[in-house]
Automatic annotation (TrEMBL):
NAD(+) binds at residues 10-15, 35, 40, 91-95, 132-133, 166, 277-280, 347. GO terms for biological process: glycosaminoglycan biosynthetic process; UDP-glucuronate biosynthetic process. One of its GO terms (molecular function) is NAD binding. Pathway: Nucleotide-sugar biosynthesis; UDP-alpha-D-glucuronate biosynthesis; UDP-alpha-D-glucuronate from UDP-alpha-D-glucose: step 1/1. It holds the Pfam family UDPG_MGDP_dh_C. This is UDP-glucose 6-dehydrogenase. It comes from Flavobacterium nitrogenifigens. Catalyzes the conversion of UDP-glucose into UDP-glucuronate, one of the precursors of teichuronic acid. Its EC number is 1.1.1.22. Residues 333-448 form the UDP-glucose/GDP-mannose dehydrogenase C-terminal domain. InterPro entries: 6-PGluconate_DH-like_C_sf, NAD(P)-bd_dom_sf, UDP-Glc/GDP-Man, UDP-Glc/GDP-Man_DH_C, UDP-Glc/GDP-Man_DH_C_sf, UDP-Glc/GDP-Man_DH_dimer, UDP-Glc/GDP-Man_DH_N, UDPglc_DH_euk. The active site is at 277 (nucleophile). Substrate binds at residues 162-166, 221-225, 261, 268-274, 339-340, 443. Belongs to the UDP-glucose/GDP-mannose dehydrogenase family.
Amino acid sequence: MKITKICCIGAGYVGGPTMAVIAQKCPHIQVTVVDLNEQRIADWNDPNPENIPIYEPGLSEIVAEARGRNLFFSTEVDKAIDEAQMIFISVNTPTKTYGKGKGMAADLKYIELCARQIARVAKQNKIVVEKSTLPVRTAEAIKSILDNTGNGVQFQILSNPEFLAEGTAVTDLLNPDRILIGGDTTEEGEEAINALVDVYSNWVSRDKILTTNVWSSELSKLTANAFLAQRISSINAMSELCEKTGADVNEVARAIGMDSRIGPKFLKASVGFGGSCFQKDILNLVYIAKSYGLNEVADYWEQVIIMNDHQKRRFSNKIVQTLYNTVADKKIAFLGWAFKKDTNDTRESAAIYVADDLINEQAKISVFDPKVSKSKMLNDLDYLETRTSQENIKALNSFENAYEACKGAHAIAILTEWDEFKTYDWKKIYDSMHKPAFVFDGRNILNAKELESIGFVYNGIGS
Ligand code: UDX
Ligand code: ADP
């Protein structure tokens, strides 16, 4: 089947950039991204491409090129489903916050709603592509809904996990390490797989496009994220030992990374990993393992999360201890709130948890993040339900620039590795602060020697 019309349900961090790149690279395919959230769609359609709702380097340029040509953003979900031969499901699958599997299993209610909507609307055969991270065997559930509630048309379900990392989404999409497509091994399944292979081969070489069965594809995504997160928890575990022994975790990471079997990437000790994927996917893996009675497997992977939670807590404890065991009414400046640089996404950001701990100790938090709004920060805190919105408003403030955020602060905590932090006039910042002035570098991005020569008391991770 030759694909000429694609619909993507979900205009978020995955659906938006992925469809923008497909549209740019496949001008012969009409790509329509739909979402229930009217504001989000309005933002994607903002005449100024700089105002699109997701910040990713290079994305606004691609949207500017393709939007209105063969890339469309719309709230007319039914219409887009009806017209498309291929439908990507790119809705969010957060960890369940209620009922069975609470805090562990993925909440599939948005996926199920999509499947039911597709079943209701579709009047011709469709290929349905799972793009969201899903527990293994979700494709089966989607298929069952489609086959049992549809209008008698044929559906092929493909799993096509997204491996892009936020902050580098555009380059990851343009030059992927691999594209993974899982489908049925029947003739119709293979036809569907080939249709999607043809879409990607407009810009990705065939030898990078891997095809597997559906379940291998689904499980590969969880496994990839678990392995990546495990490397971070492993190096973070060593960072605590380094602090006790006088070794330097950056030197250790460099030394082990030169072993070609280990490799240098994903060995940066930090205040802890965040983002919408790692924690959710590992919890999901743990839940699946437990549900098959594989307790050792579950415990093994759960430890990655336990270590990550410990690392965040350890960082806030260190701030309190260093500031003479009290931060009550002290101003602590946060540089960065996003879960990593070059994104405005804050889901599971370490900053949220560190702020929460410090506010419990009655500190006042003043934040500067180049891309995150104050309302988003407050929403993140409210979501924890530790205290009321009014209390959060009193405890957290955000500023237009770092110099304002740091003025009069007792300490600075670096929570995100934004490049611009390295270029600041640190002497000027030091002069505006309470003395002794502390820096807690949760990302190890600043030059410790330089800061110490100015007069700062510098604390990095793992040294
Ligand atoms: C991740 C996967 O990389 C991607 O393939 C998948 O599709 C989605 O999940 P993402 O969460 O966007 O992507 O970003 P990533 O670069 O993986 O970073 C995740 C977290 O780990 C961030 O908080 C980052 O700061 C942290 N991290 C990363 C470290 O603390 N140390 C490192 O060495 C690398
Ligand atoms: P991700 O990082 O997985 O892309 P996001 O939360 O950024 O997650 O985006 C998911 C999007 O999916 C949200 O904008 C949400 O409004 C949208 N969405 C969820 N359920 C549906 C649905 N049934 N129909 C259309 N859009 C949906």
